[in-house]
C-alpha cells in the first residue's frame, strides 16, 4: 500500500527536498506550510506530480488529516526569520508540536520532529553527543527558537512515555545546498550571493568560530532512514556532518569556488553567536546506519551552481538576489 506522508514546513529548504525525495520513493506526499518564511516556488516543480498535494496551513491551529507518517519541520530556522516574530516562533514550536502530536495520536501515525543542534546552546562539550543537556540562554534573542525546540522535544517524549506514540527526534546541524533562500542570512548562502555579485564577504567576529556543514542530500537521506528505523529507536539522534570548518576558511573556500574578486571584511559578532559546533554522529552511524558522503568542495560546487542559475534567471530579482 502507498505510504501517505505529511511534511509540515514542506515549502522550506529541507522540506522541499524531503517532499521530492519521498515522492521518488513512491510515497503520497502532503506538503503543509503557511509560507511565513518560505515560498511556494520551492515546490512548483512538484505541483503536477500525481502523488503530491499541498495545503496552506499554520500548524499552530489544529489539523485533521489521515496519513501514516508526519515529518514536523515547520518553523523558520534562520535567526533573521525566527527573530522577526519570536512569539509566533515559539508558538509554532510548541503549539505546532502539540497539534501534530495530538493528530499522530488520533490517527496512530509515526511522527518525526526536526529538532536542532541549537538545543545544545553554546556548548562546553565538543563534539556534542546526544546525552549532553546543553547550555542554553533562556532569555536571549535566540531563545524563542532554542527553547521552543527543546520544549517540543519534551512534548515528543511525554507523548511517547504517556501515550506510547512512535516518535523520532532528529537534531539537525547546519545544513546547506540548493534552494537555500538567498536572503535568509545563513553563512553559506550569504557568502555565495556576495561572491557572485563581487561584494565583500561579511565574516562576523574574527571568523575563528566553527561550524560543521552537511550537504542537503546527505541530511535528507538520513532523515528518512531515521523515520524508517525500528520503533524502539526513539531517543534524539544527531544528524549532520562532523567535518568542522572555521567561518574564515569557509569564506576562503567560497572565494575560491566562485572565482570572485571580492575580499573578506569583518563585522561585529551577533549576540548569542556560538563559538563551536560539531555533531557526534556515532549513534546515527551505528543505528541507521548512515554517514554523510558529500565533501564541502562538492557541496559548495552544486550550491554555487544553483545560485548562479538563480542569478541568471530574471526570477532572481524577485527572489532577493539583487
Ligand atoms: N556568519 C558570518 N557571516 C555571515 C553570516 C553568518 O560570519 O554573513 C557567521 C555567524 O556569525 C555564525 C556562523 O557564520 O558564527 C554560522 O551562521 P549561520 O547563521 O549560518 O548558522 P548558525 O549560527 O545558526 O549556526
Q: In terms of per-residue confidence, which ranges show pLDDT below 50 for 5 or more consecutive residues? A: none
Mean pLDDT figure: 94
CA-atom Rg in angstroms: 19 Å
Q: Give the ligands present.
A: uridine-5'-diphosphate
The structural class is alpha/beta
| Number of alpha- plus pi-helical segments | 10
The helical percent reads: 25-40%
Q: List SSEs in N-to-C order.
A: EHEEEHHEHEEHEEEHEEHEHHH
CATH architecture of the domain at 4-176 and 215-239: 3-Layer(aba) Sandwich
Structure description:
By secondary structure, this protein is of the alpha/beta class. It has a domain at 4-176 and 215-239: NAD(P)-binding Rossmann-like Domain (Rossmann fold, 3-Layer(aba) Sandwich). Helices cover 38% and strands 17% of the residues. It has 10 helices and 13 strands. The protein has helices at residues 13-24, 79-82, 86-107, 143-163, 187-196, 216-228, 247-258, 282-287, 296-312, 315-318, and strands at residues 4-8, 28-33, 52-56, 69-72, 110-116, 167-172, 175-176, 201-204, 210-212, 214-215, 236-239, 244-246, 264-267. It has a 7-stranded parallel sheet with strand order 3-2-1-4-5-6-11, sandwiched between helices. Helix 5 crosses helix 9 and helix 7 packs across helix 9 (296-312). The longest helix is centred in the N-terminal third of the chain and has 22 residues, at 86-107. The radius of gyration is 19 Å and the shape is globular. The N and C termini lie far apart (47 Å). Residues 79, 174, 186-187, 190, 202-204, 209, 211, 247, 269-270, 273-274 line the site of uridine-5'-diphosphate.
Amino acid at each position: 500500500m502507498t505510504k501517505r506522508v505529511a511534511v509540515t514546513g514542506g515549502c522550506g529548504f529541507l522540506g522541499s527536498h524531503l517532499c521530492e525525495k519521498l515522492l521518488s520513493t513512491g510515497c503520497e506526499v502532503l506538503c503543509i506550510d503557511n509560507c511565513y518564511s518560505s515560498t511556494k516556488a520551492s515546490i512548483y516543480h512538484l505541483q503536477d506530480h500525481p502523488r503530491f498535494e499541498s495545503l496552506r496551513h499554520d500548524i499552530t491551529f489544529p489539523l485533521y488529516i489521515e496519513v501514516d507518517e508526519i515529518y514536523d519541520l515547520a518553523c523558520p530556522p534562520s535567526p533573521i526569520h525566527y527573530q522577526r516574530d519570536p512569539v509566533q516562533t515559539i508558538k509554532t514550536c510548541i503549539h505546532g508540536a502539540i497539534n501534530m502530536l495530538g493528530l499522530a495520536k488520533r490517527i496512530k501515525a509515526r511522527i518525526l520532529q526536526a529538532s536542532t543542534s541549537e538545543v545544545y546552546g553554546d556548548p562546553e562539550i565538543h563534539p556534542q553527543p546526544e546525552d549532553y543537556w546543553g547550555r542554553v540562554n533562556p532569555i536571549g534573542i535566540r531563545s524563542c527558537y532554542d527553547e521552543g525546540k527543546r520544549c517540543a522535544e519534551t512534548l515528543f517524549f511525554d507523548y511517547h512515555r504517556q501515550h506510547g506514540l512512535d516518535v523520532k527526534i532528529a537534531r539537525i546541524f547546519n545544513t546547506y545546498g540548493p534552494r537555500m533562500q538567498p536572503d535568509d542570512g545563513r553563512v553559506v548562502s550569504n557568502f555565495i550571493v556576495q561572491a557572485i555579485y563581487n561584494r565583500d564577504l561579511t565574516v562576523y567576529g574574527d571568523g575563528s568560530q566553527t561550524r560543521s556543514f552537511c550537504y542537503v542530500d546527505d541530511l535528507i537521506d538520513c532523515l528518512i532512514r531515521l523515520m524508517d528505523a525500528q520503533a524502539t529507536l526513539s531517543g534524539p539522534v544527531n544528524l549532520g556532518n562532523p567535518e568542522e570548518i572555521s567561518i574564515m576558511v569557509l569564506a576562503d573556500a567560497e572565494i575560491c569556488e566562485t572565482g570572485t574578486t571580492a575580499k573578506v571584511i569583518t563585522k561585529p559578532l551577533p549576540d548569542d553567536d556560538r563559538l563551536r559546533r560539531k555533531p557526534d554522529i556515532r549513534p546515527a552511524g551505528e543505528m541507521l546506519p548512515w554517514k554523510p558522503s558529500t565533501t564541502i568542495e562538492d557541496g559548495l560546487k552544486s550550491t554555487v551552481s544553483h545560485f548562479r542559475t538563480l542569478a541568471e534567471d530574471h526570477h532572481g530579482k524577485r527572489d532577493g538576489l539583487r
